[in-house]
Structure formats: C-alpha cells, structure tokens
From TrEMBL:
The keyword Repeat applies. Pfam families: PROPPIN. This is Uncharacterized protein. It comes from Loa loa (Eye worm). Keywords: Repeat, WD repeat.
Length: 174
C-alpha cells in the first residue's frame, strides 16, 4: 500500500511505504517516528482541487494546495467533546470528507457511524445538521446547488441550500 508522510512544519509530502501521517502541526515528527504516526483513512480534493482533505482515526485536516511547493493549513480538528451538542463534532475514524468548494461547509462520515452524514461549518465550529441513511454512505459529491449521497443500492439527491431531499435513484444490478 502506498502511504506518505506529511511534514506540516515544512508543508511537504514524502512518499513512503512505511508509515502514514500525523495531522498535527506540533510537535513535528521525524520520518522514522512510527509511534507518532497515524494512519490515513481518507484523502481527497474539493470540487476545484484547491484544497486537500486528510482524515485519520482521531483527526482531520484541510490544506490549501494553490501553491505547488507548499501546503498551507486551512483547518484541523481533533477528537473533541462539548456540553453543547451542536458543537460536539466527534472526530473518529474519518472515512469521508467533502468540502463545498472553498467554503467552510464540510460533509463528514466516520467508520463509527457509516450511515450518518454530518454537515459541519468548521469556522463556526458547529454541526449544521446530520442525515441518517439506511446503508453505509459510500460517496458524497457536491456542486453549488446539489449534494449527491451514494449508498450501496440507492443515490439520494439533496439541495445544498436547505438539505431538502429532491429525489432518489434506485439500483438493482442483478
């Protein structure tokens, strides 16, 4: 399996086959520090490929990739709990992160709740809403108007503006 080390201090990616990444900015880690590493569970781009999303067991991070020689940290989040349930976005085993262009809206799915899609505003640090589905969320795609959520046997389409359900498409490949 191809893995990489993210040196956040220098903003560089090094391809390695030994360990994955640690999504923290401090302390920086050496390439040989396997105990400090955290395995990536998700890597993806936003729609216009101006930001990179990385997800792991206890954290996720967003980086600007407008410059080819350096990654700039936009946002990072760690497992966090709050008395306010709206602000309690538990970061656990992120399996999917989608960002709406360069906005502050994130769509998050974890392996602990693979049927639950969380819509999160990272600058305000609050969950806007959460949508539960009958099966595991396999993919989410966004444009300025619609959010498409793909499950194993059905695709749901919602409006981004108010997350209202527009329609669904059923699959039967037998």
């Amino acid at each position: 399996m191809f893995r990489c080390i993210l040196d956040v201090e220098n903003g560089a990616l090094w391809p390695l086959q030994v360990i994955a990444t640690r999504l923290t900015t401090v302390p920086s880690m050496s390439r040989d520090d396997e105990l400090a590493a955290e395995e990536l569970s998700f890597v993806g781009f936003n729609q216009d490929a101006t930001s990179l999303a990385l997800g792991a067991a206890s954290s996720y991070a967003l980086y600007s990739i407008k410059k080819t020689d350096k990654l700039d940290l936009i946002h990072e989040s760690y497992r966090q709990f709050s008395d306010d349930k709206k602000k309690n976005v538990e970061v656990c085993e992120i399996m999917l992160i989608e960002r709406l262009f360069s906005s502050s809206l994130l769509m998050l799915v974890s392996t602990q709740a693979p049927r639950k899609l969380r819509i999160y505003h990272f600058q305000k640090n609050n969950e806007i809403c959460a949508q539960s589905y009958t099966n595991t969320v396999l993919a989410v795609r966004l444009n300025r108007d619609y959010m498409v959520v793909c499950l194993e046997d059905i695709v749901y389409i919602h409006t981004v503006k108010d997350m209202k359900h527009v329609c669904e498409v059923y699959f039967n490949f037998q």
